Amino acid sequence: MDFEIRIIKCAPASALERIYRSVGWYDESFSAEAMEKIPQNSTIFAGAFVNNEMVGMGRLISDGVSDGCIQDVAVIKEFQGSGIGKAIVQTIVNEALARGIDWIQLIATPGNENFYKSIGFEVMQDHTPMRFTS
User: What's the confidence (pLDDT) of residue 129?
Assistant: First the structure.
């Protein structure tokens, strides 16, 4: 399958919604305006395109100096398993390194650890991911 990964700063809310819905992450409370801010406000946003249709995404949130966190790597289900997810992550990592951001981390969903290990990520020993829940 031919696909292209592009670093972009904007994407239609409908394309993002389709991707998020496909992987079960869509939140009905998000407005179209909020969805469109996701690529705009990300330090690096990579879109995956097949025949000019966005079928996957991933992003890096960062201080722009040294630290970055990869988030929301998602590929529409019918395109999974074709190397798109790996290409998205590699593109984000390469772009981050080119910008001098070299402490790159992510939180993998259970069952996807080997996918990220195959790209070069390792489990951080003696660290526990945490989330504020009020």
Answer: 87
